[in-house]
């Protein structure tokens, strides 16, 4: 009588957790509700008509870009501080910067579409647009610095220094409409010009984009940790092989 075959394993190799899966579901639901609010529920603007609906993506995306870059700066400072120095902070900084660059790209694209409807052109060298583009390029440079060679601590140290300088651009972008004469309108929410369903839709956009940011941050920094572990094992293997070659050369 033949031996019984073992039952196939029902376990799955997954990188998510119960929390991140729940967070992902909440994120999808929030984005879906934002789409309904922005496209169906909220009214058209008296001047910009349906073009104002771009605002429900444009405004939350730039706010979350600010948040992402501030997190990058704080995590970088935590790495540079001797008492809290850990590569975990460096990975959080890098992951947050990547997400921030994505949000700034969304900001620039939606802003260009909005500009085409409002000004008749996709791009003008306005102070707000120019400083936002500079912020985008600066953090692309930060990511390029992270990709340079060297050990993990070397990467973390040089990236943290760049992040500490880059984060000071955020006030420059945010207050550019007040410091210079720009085509870009001033903050309508702070002036109380937006209320009711339109204000709620913007608020919900911030909620949805924040959930997406946290979900992406958790997964991306986890992937970075796995990439670092793979690189470390590869380096250890290379050192073992080099030592073996040295021993063979002595015999």
Outline: globular
Q: Segments where pLDDT lies below 50 for 5+ residues?
A: 5-11
Mean pLDDT: 83
- Can you summarize the main beta sheet? none
State the domain count: 1
Distance between the termini: 55 Å
Total number of helical segments? 8
Binned, the helix content reads over 70%
Query: In angstroms, what is the radius of gyration?
Result: 24 Å
How would you classify the helix and strand content by structural class? mainly alpha
Q: What order do the SSEs take from the amino end to the carboxyl end, as H and E? A: HHHHHHHH
Question: How many individual β-strands?
Answer: 0
Strand content: under 5%
Task: Explain the overall architecture.
- This protein has helices at residues 18-41, 55-80, 87-119, 127-146, 152-166, 169-174, 176-179, 196-250.
- The chain is mainly alpha-helical.
- It has one domain (23-228).
- Helix 2 packs across helix 5 (152-166), helix 3 packs antiparallel against helix 4 and helix 4 (127-146) runs antiparallel to helix 5.
- It is globular, with a radius of gyration of 24 Å.
